[in-house]
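From: lab user (bench 3)
To: helpdesk
Subject: output format question, protein + glutamine

Hello, I'm new to running complex predictions and I'm not sure whether the block I got back is the full result or only part of it. Here's what I submitted:
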Amino acid sequence: MLSSRMPPQTHDQHNEHDQDPDFLARLGTSGEMSENYSPIPEGYQQGRTKFVVVLGTVMSGLGKGIFSSSLAKLLKDKGLTVAPIKLEGYLNIDSGTLNPYRHGEVFVLEDGLETDMDLGTYERILDQNLNRKNFLTAGQIYTEILERERRGDYLGRDVQMIPHVTGEVKRKLRELALTGNQGKQCDVVFVEVGGTAGDYENGFYIEALRELAFEEGPDSTCFVALTYIIEPSILGEQKSKAAQLGIKRLLEAGIQPSIIACRAKDPVTNQVMEKIGMFSNVPMNRIFSMHDRESIYTIPDAMRAARLDGQILSILDMHERVDPTHEDRARGEWKQFTQQLLATRRHKINIAITGKYAALRDAYASIDKALEHCATQLSADINAHWIDTTSIETSADADKALAGMHGIIVPGGFGLRGVEGKILCVEHARTNRLPYLGICLGFQVAVIEYARNVMGLPGAHSTEFEPDCAGAIIAELPEQKKLEGILGGTMRLGAQDVVLREGSLARHLYNGQASVRERFRHRYEVEPGYIDRLADAGLHFSGRHPDYPIMQVLELESTQHPYFVGAQFHPELTSRPLTPNPLFMGLVAAAIRTAEPEASLDDLPAQWKPNHSGDTANGHEFAQSPG
Ligand code: GLN
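Helpdesk reply: Thanks, we reran it on our side. This is the complete output you should expect:
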């Protein structure tokens, strides 16, 4: 029976899952029921992991994820191991079914979980792969509890928000702490609570975190209130009342913030910060102005300059865990990146991006970021043109829409709308030697276009759009899905190996690697019966699944086109500031060469100067028929 509010230092009890005898024991048998349910995973060392909890007040959309990941990066740079988690109040199990119009893009993790775009921010800023333990929704928690209830695991006990739901949240946080450092217990768990304090749907998370802080003991948890300072134009000065009221909601919930971070357009005045501090018991040296910056990538440095990191270390009593050598190296690398980011760009290029959700950039957040990473490395000033292909009905329309472009990306998508316009854009790119990167659906439409216009299969299409088409060149292949062991879900999700053909452009771009891992989210793929015919006609599949005939990268020969590449996976999901995705780098480098054919491109690193016709080193031979 667990009745103590303060768990012992080390716990060796089992609390794992279903029918676990210890789980049952904790609940107590009839007659001696525990009022507290606060499971501790086996091997969990109390005090080893510290928790930083970031809560929003006043309003959402303040960049909690960016704040949280920047702070986590600062601590990671000091040699600490960090594990972020986003707690979502909604009842969906994952973000797979969410409309990108409402929620931004669906970000796919290595293990195939479809998550919120904030997880992309964490992966990029921390340069760390996340998994399903880093993302929790109310739907996941309730499902687990209700399944357990139906099995009778609660032994007659009424199942309650407190302690059972809050207990489950604490269990998940401690499980993450225990495995967050590649299977080892990590130094700091960063908890981002979705929504704002006072929302009905995240109340149980806030209560669970209050309990966690109490159970873990002093110096264990640092609550950060991210608030917003309004500056009404009619007054022309910053007002603190909304922030005060927002923080009061936290105090009412039993949470005393240790740090207050004030989001605002302009630097927050001392007067405003003093007022907020006085009403919320937080001293001035723990209140920070987090005003708008030129780039989100400069936030970690700004936080450090304001000594936010030092305050966190003091609150959590972990100064002695810092590794200064690690910090110097990490800071040096980041500094170089931010300097390049802010430097004047030498190459001006226009990149077209076709997209159904063109109106909403969040729907393509990772593509936007991947381009930014490449632009920084290659000193490119990229002007992105978002093109709605529903209005492109003829070749002339495509020519007009793509005039003046130096490269084009056809991103992933679902549904028929705008597909024919995308195919016309591919044709334009192929016949006008415009650098092309097709992603997922963009890979599939490149195959369709080639089959129709070069290989001589006018009825070529995807069965997603025309189930009974004459040339089902892109089709759903359930047999392969079974072979791959993907059951349950109908989509092929998550990281898979991609074997890159020797001598191919793809292999060259990936620095000669024979095999890479990339992330997928699709249902349809190239029908294997057409692979050889496509290759004979000049479209080569240079990236494949190691065991099954699943085509994963396509390209044209260097003599045919300066840069025509498609990926069945989503290269944007693995692009990071210091290590941009190679397929994006290839596109941007090719776009620079297109924009400045006469200019000396000596400043382009050798890696990104591939594919000049006649360049024997990078000849990309496809003499043998692909096996
Ligand atoms: N709709 C296509 C498929 O399901 C492409 C998916 C995508 O672009 N993510 O295969």
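A quick orientation on your result: The CA atoms of residues 103 and 116 lie 8 Å apart. Let us know if anything else is unclear.
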